Structure formats: C-alpha cells, structure tokens
Amino acid sequence: xxxxxxxxxxxxxxxxxxxxxxxxxxxxxxxxxxxxxxxxxxxxxxxxxxxxxxxxxxxxxxxxxxxxxxxxxxxxxxxxxxxxxxxxxxxxxxxxxxxxxxxxxxxxxxxxxxxxxxxxxxxxxxxxxxxxxxxxxxxxxxxxxxxxxxxxxxxxxxxxxxxxxxxxxxxxxxxxxxxxxxxxxxxxxxxxxxxxxxxxxxxxxxxxxxxxxxxxx
Amino acid sequence: xxxxxxxxxxxxxxxxxxxxxxxxxxxxxxxxxxxxxxxxxxxxxxxxxxxxxxxxxxxxxxxxxxxxxxxxxxxxxxxxxxxxxxxxxxxxxxxxxxxxxxxxxxxxxxxxxxxxxxxxxxxxxxxxxxxxxxxxxxxxxxxxxxxxxxxxxxxxxxxxxxxxxxxxxxxxxxxxxxxxxxxxxxxxxxxxxxxxxxxxxxxxxxxxxxxxxxxxx
DNA sequence: ACAAATATTTAGATTTGTCTAAATTTATTA
DNA sequence: TAATAAATTTAGACAAATCTAAATATTTGT
Lengths: 217, 217
Description:
2 copies of one chain form a homodimer. By secondary structure, the first copy, chain A, is α+β, with helices and mostly antiparallel strands.
C-alpha cells in the first residue's frame, strides 16, 4: 500500500462513520482535498486490489479487507498520538500532523512494542478510541454536551472537532478530558450554555457544545 | 525533499566517508540498487536544488547544504535506532529497516524531544556517532580490531558492518559494545585472531576482526 | 417526462522516479 | 595514439498520482 492509498482508505472509513449511506466521489474528493477525477482513478485502483467496493456512478464502500486496513492505520495514528503526548510532552493540538506521517510506518512489531510502552491505552489524547491489534473497535457513545439537559452533569470524554484552534480554545478555558461539566442553564435564543466546570462558571456557544463528547453521570 | 532524494543524499554522504575522491555514477547506482541512468536523472534534479555539485561525467559531491541535509537525516536515523533499542527493547539487529522509514518523518520538534527523552545520546546502538542538532559530527576513531598488535587490549566501540547476520554472530559469541578484547595471538596463515573477551577465549577470522572498531587502552 | 443542473467519468497532460536500449564520452592498453 | 572497453548520458517508455477540460450519466424540478 502506498501512503496515498492508505490515506484514501482512512478517509473512506471516517466518512463511513460520520455520514450514513454510500460515499460519493465528490464527498471523498472534498475530504481528500483533491479533484473528483483523481478520486475516480484511485477508486479503480483500490477496487482492483480488493480494498473497496466500487461501481461507476454508484459510490464507494470499504470491503472487509479495506476495513481491516483502515483500522490498522487508525490504530497506528492514535497510538503515535498517545506517544507524542505521554512520552514526548507534546500538547494535544500539535500531534495530528506528525501522527499523519508516523501512521504510515510499516512494522507490526513496532506498533505492538509501542502499545506495550504506552500500557495499552484505549483512547488517544482527543478521546478517540484506539482499535485493537485484531481490529476490535468500540465506538465511543456519541453524546454531545449540547444534548445534555439543564441540571445534568457529564464527564468530558472527547472532542468531535480536533482542530488546533478548537483544542487551544479548550486549553484557554481550562476544559480538559475527564472534567465534570454541569449544565446550569441554556439560552433559548442561541442555544448557548451556562456551565459549571471545575468550580468555574463558563458560557459556551452551541458550536462549542456541539463538538464536545460527554458521558452522562 | 522526497524520500528518494533524501536516500540519495544519504548514500552520497556515506560513500564520501568511506572511499576517497569523487563519487561515480556507477558507485552510487550500486549503492542505491538502481541503474546508472536513474542516478544521472536524480543528480540533475539534486544539482538544480543546490544539494550536490554535479557536472556530466565528472562525478558528484555534496554541497554544504547537501551535507547539512545528510547530517540531519543521519541524526534522525540514529536517534530513532537508540529509541527502538532503549525504549522499545528491540535488538540491535532489528532496528535499521525501521529507522530507514522513521528518518524521513518531518518535524524538528519531534527530533529535539526524542533527543531529550533519550538523554542526548552521542552514539547509536552500533556505536556510530549521532550528529548534533547544529550539524556537529565527530567521526569515531576508525581503529579496527584486526589492526591491534598481539598483547594489546581494546574496548569494542562499534561495528563497521551492521548487517543483521554480523550482529547476530556477535550476540551468539557474547561480544558487545563496551567489552574489553585482548589479542592473545594472531595466525600468520589467515590472520585470524585468538582473543580474550570477558574471561573467555575465542577464535575470530580476519573478516570478523575487520568489522569491529576498538579503542586501544 | 423532459430539460436543466449536478455529479461523475474519460481523455489527455504533467511530475517523479524508475527502466531499457542506444549513443556518447572517458579510460585503457596494445 | 588509435582501437577497444568501460562508464556515463540520452532518448523514449512506463506506473503512480495528480490535474484540466470535455464527455457522459444521474438527479431534480417543473
């Protein structure tokens, strides 16, 4: 597998998790920041290798083999992210780009050893679950902070948007994974929230609340 | 820089250290396991980028910029090798191939942090010196075990051949970097050696002795 | 259900890195 | 030093991954 092929496989997997239904050439092109014609070419190649189901004009999906590959790449990506944060002291907003490169390193043993060094983590620094060595993959509950009702409390377990800007916003406001967040009030007008986190009262826009995963307690 | 370009730069640097004089297209082709015509193409490209001095039929050498690049890649390679051995418990015969991939990861900060994690090592697991962040590069004394005279003692400081077969031979015979080796006798016929290492008497062929670097004491 | 809009694919070109075969230059040696 | 051998470069081709522009298919709206 080339790096490019791996990146397409990963993108198809992520689109599959997000949206429902088939994945269109255009959607994939947008995700890959490339042109639809390039996607068509690549789909033909991946289809020949048995990694995707592709029929002209019918959209694309991963085969079992393709899904296995995707999980392997995502496992590598997320383990490397944990390594960067836990062992090399990177901030969670700096690790994505480096992990994008490291995820393509080929060595089963390397990943197993890394997993061991990190003590078999189940989640990456953004709260995303790390697929197991044999492809086990438990999706996290996708309850968003914006879905909690007034008065209830949740533990922050992940971010939906893991862009550096969003992560730095959370840092600035001292909101971290593991924090308890209580919904004090909700504005009817814009659905913004008044919350209590760590003894502090904060005001969060709906957009922020839409990008924080919580576990209700 | 593409991976391929980096590999050529590295190969030119290593050939420069080994042999004397200019580096020929054929020598580089052999080292890169490719065809001379491919080398010619690549030399033109690297020359345009200012990384090598290249004139048709005149051989090639690195520019200052090319040398800086080579040292940076070698630094990354060797730091990753230390990481694999020290932190992930790999044997010294398993790390080269993985480091060949890792050396192409782009992130200055990553390498600085790795250097720090490993406590600023000066040598890799094979005893090769690790270039500094600013391009400092001290070549190791290149005294070979085969050059020691009878009765003298040296500390094993490196291997010239770092192929897995040779490294496993050393493991099998419990010869490791740091060991003291005393030359007990030398056979005139084949220049093989009788040595004392770690209280044990061993018999080494000249070929083995030609691939072990020592520091005389 | 047909025309217009949208999505997708095809055709043909480009870049990188490679190859083989042919041409050319440099080195050797008789 | 001239011919032969060896080394090197050129020419032309190919695969991967991309692009633009044109052609084709599908979807939508009236």
